[in-house]
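STRUCTURE:
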């Protein structure tokens, strides 16, 4: 399908997608910055807080195994994208009602948090597949990088909005005001859907009939990525090792407060700073990816390996350096890492590939998060060593994958 002469330029569409993510990130990153205090105010213990937030991340990642193939089977990428963003826009502001529900408030809040995370799983494979088409016209590294940078502007602004509203009124008003950016995100998304009904028209390399593997008929076969290339699975494992090895923000925040390096009130500001670093990293590495190729991603395992040694250190200077490394690694993982998937997988199966990719990431993220918390309580040195070893394996897999897949990516 050719692009109509009146259609917006590819860059304009990339920016439009970015502004949707900016507004949506204000909603869910603003909420995530206070999930702990919200649940605690409703009577949750620390164990419950950890269980709910951990389960939420698992839902957001692992369930993409189902929603990626669903998008490719039905072709309803826009429908799933809109539904997923809608869940976030609605469920987060509804958390403000939790204290009015008495004994049922905690259960209601947990449900809203998990539904918000479900929205992430529903939309992400489809949104990434749509964006991959458009980004092909401007350079996928730059396209995904610009999108991630705008996304991170929202991730930076959201916690600040919640903090300001909570200081002026209450924590619950801080959640309620997030209805405004949620509504903005939905209006922008619906307008974009109307202007760009078929983003595939922007793709510089439409798939040829003999270029794309046949989609397996079985649902389970699709969900586990049957027919995707060995290069894809090798890359998914390598990227997931970096995801699982990257110490979570929860552990970093716990460390700086328990060790008295920062007051509790300063932790959200440190998080906002990390989000700003993510945005800059996404832009810089995305541009470098288009110029130099996938080998720029070899820096990710190195950064991930440095994080526990620095961010969990005994001085504030070391922690700040670790947070910078953490932010850069996060920015690359959430942007340019996804661009490689689009280069390894043909368009008809990209949503499936993004779902499988996120599913593998989610499983290793859960394992990595539990292992990091357990090792942190027992031996910081052991945590540093285990993370370093996992990143050596990840680095080896990345080098091997890029060497094997270089001819295909050059041809694309």
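SEQUENCE:
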């Amino acid at each position: 399908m050719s692009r109509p002469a009146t259609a917006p330029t590819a860059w304009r569409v990339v920016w439009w997608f970015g502004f949707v993510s900016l507004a949506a990130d204000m909603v869910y990153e603003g909420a995530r910055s206070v999930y702990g205090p919200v649940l605690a105010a409703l009577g949750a213990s620390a164990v419950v807080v950890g269980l709910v937030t951990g389960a939420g991340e698992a839902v957001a990642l692992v369930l993409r195994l189902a929603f990626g193939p669903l998008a490719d089977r039905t072709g309803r990428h826009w429908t799933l994208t809109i539904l997923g963003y809608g869940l976030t826009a609605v469920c987060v502001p509804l958390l403000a009602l939790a204290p009015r529900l008495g004994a049922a408030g905690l259960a209601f809040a947990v449900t809203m948090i998990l539904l918000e995370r479900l929205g992430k799983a529903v939309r992400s494979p489809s949104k990434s597949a749509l964006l991959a088409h458009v980004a092909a016209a401007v350079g996928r590294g730059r396209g995904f990088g610009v999108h991630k940078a705008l996304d991170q502007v929202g991730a930076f602004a959201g916690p600040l909005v919640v903090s300001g509203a909570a200081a002026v009124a209450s924590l619950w008003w801080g959640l309620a005001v997030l209805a405004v950016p949620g509504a903005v995100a939905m209006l922008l998304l619906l307008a974009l859907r109307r202007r760009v009904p078929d983003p595939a028209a922007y793709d510089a390399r439409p798939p040829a009939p003999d270029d794309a593997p046949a989609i397996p008929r079985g649902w389970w076969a699709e969900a586990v990525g049957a027919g995707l290339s060995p290069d894809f699975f090798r890359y998914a494992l390598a990227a997931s090792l970096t995801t699982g090895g990257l110490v979570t923000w929860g552990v970093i925040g716990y460390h700086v407060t328990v060790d008295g390096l920062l007051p509790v009130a300063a932790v959200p500001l440190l998080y906002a700073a990390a989000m700003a670093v993510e945005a800059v990293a996404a832009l810089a590495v995305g541009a470098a990816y288009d110029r130099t190729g996938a080998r720029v991603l070899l820096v990710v395992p190195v950064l991930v390996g440095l994080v526990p040694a620095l961010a969990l250190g005994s001085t504030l200077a070391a922690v700040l350096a670790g947070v910078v490394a953490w932010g850069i690694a996060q920015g690359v993982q959430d942007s340019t890492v996804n661009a490689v998937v689009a280069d390894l997988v043909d368009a008809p199966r990209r949503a499936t590939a993004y779902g499988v990719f996120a599913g593998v990431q989610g499983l290793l993220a859960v394992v990595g998060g539990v292992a990091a918390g357990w090792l942190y309580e027992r031996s910081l040195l052991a945590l540093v060593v285990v993370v370093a070893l996992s990143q050596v394996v990840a680095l080896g897999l990345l080098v091997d994958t890029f060497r094997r897949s270089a001819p295909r990516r050059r041809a694309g």
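REMARK: The two ends are 19 Å apart (CA to CA).
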